[in-house]
Amino acid sequence: MAFSFPAQSNTNNSTEAMAAKVGLQWCIQQGYNDLYLEIDSQIVANMLIARNTDNLYLKGLIEDITTLMNHVEVNIAHCFKEANQVADMLAKNTAKSGNNGFYYTFQQLPGNVKGPF
Predict the structure, then answer these.
(1) Which residues contact 110 (CB under 8 A, 6 or more apart)?
(2) Between the CA of residue 73 and those of 33, 36, 57, what are the distances in Å?
(3) Fewest Cβ atoms closer than 10 Å to its Cβ: which of 37, 72, 85, 111?
(4) Is pLDDT of 93 > 80?
């Protein structure tokens, strides 16, 4: 599963955290309980690994995510944007169109995303 959505956010870190929350919620709803979460933001990855933050702007969102994490086994890793071209292309497509995208098969992916995949 891959997804993209237009996020109302002021920073890349809050956008990354919002995406992590949506992804975790979807996985939990589907019954997955052993997850590997790659995040483009080292800052957000560190907050989630620590399950805490002093960043008041992100505190509520990080708390929401850590509550979700209490229900499943989650391994968190930082992934450089350059190594995650699929997520980058999906984000660019959504930024241009303003539309949500949820993709459950390779065939559903936009054409420009299939190559990097």
Answers:
(1) 89, 90, 93, 101
(2) 6, 9, 26
(3) 111
(4) yes
Which of 68, 41, 39 is CA-nearest to residue 55?
41
CA-based diameter of the chain, in Å? 42
Alpha-carbon gap, residue 64 to 59, rounded angstroms: 9
> How far out from the chain centre does Cα 116 lie?
18
pLDDT score of 90: 87
Q: Are strands 34-39 and 2-4 parallel, antiparallel or unpaired?
A: unpaired
Write the DSSP symbol of residue 55. Answer: -
Instruction: Measure the CA–CA gap between 33 and 59, rounded to whole angstroms.
Output: 24
Q: How confident is the model at residue 94 (pLDDT cuts 50, 70, 90)?
A: confident
pLDDT greater than 90 at residue 73 = yes
> For the whole model, what pTM was predicted?
0.85
Q: Where are the alpha helices (DSSP H) in 1-117?
A: 12-29, 42-50, 59-69, 85-97, 111-114
